């Protein structure tokens, strides 16, 4: 399932406080307009896709040449990137080998606004987790990640929140990968692909049943 920002959460933040709005607003901006992707964000594929196709809610065009397909080392993959109507298509120049990948985009909306973000997925690779890790969140909320290796990972927050969004960035990927989170009033979990080792920064915007919002930040180290 494609993970995307839900505008209603930003409205809840506006109602609560200007501080929360200022913190959460970049999430809406970074992921404005994307409806779905093929492969889906966080997919673990058994065969390589011939192309990565993103579909947006409105017509868009490329913003320069900075949209790119990236392999598990953080290096660009030779590919063509084209925008037509509501779609952006990344077409590798040769079949993608087994590995982990991200597709990052820099676009311009019909209103002339910049739109950027990223999705990630794996191709024909196992998903070893390594060792679970406890990470430090600010404000102090008990937070764990189910492994310390790259791949499909799950982050868990001890929180009364019922929903949320997690943004992930790294030195190799300043465009944010967005994960959707779900909670049961006791904990919130979110799953997606972190494609390479190193330090990943997260910003989690969590919302409870009363529409109270908390923004949580921290870092996860993968080896």
Please outline the helices and strands.
Blueprint: H1 7-16, H2 18-30, E1 34-38, E2 44-45, E3 52-56, E4 60-62, E5 68-70, E6 79-84, E7 87-92, E8 99-109, E9 114-123, E10 133-135, E11 137-138, E12 143-145, E13 151-158, E14 163-170, E15 173-183, E16 187-194, E17 198-207, E18 213-222
Parallel strand pairs: 2-9
Antiparallel strand pairs: 1-3, 3-7, 4-8, 5-8, 6-7, 8-9, 10-12, 11-18, 12-13, 13-16, 14-15, 14-17, 15-16, 17-18
Helix pairs in contact: 1-2
How many H/I helical runs? 2
Average pLDDT number: 87
Order of strands across the main sheet? 10-12-13-16-15-14-17-18-11
Any idea what the radius of gyration is? 17 Å
- Taken in chain order, the helices and strands follow as HHEEEEEEEEEEEEEEEEEE
Parts with pLDDT < 50 across at least 5 consecutive residues? 1-32
Q: Tell me the fraction of residues in β-strands, as a range.
A: over 45%
Largest sheet: 9 strands, antiparallel
Question: How much helical structure, as a percent, in the residues?
Answer: 10-25%
Taking the alpha carbons of the first and last residues, their distance comes to 27 Å
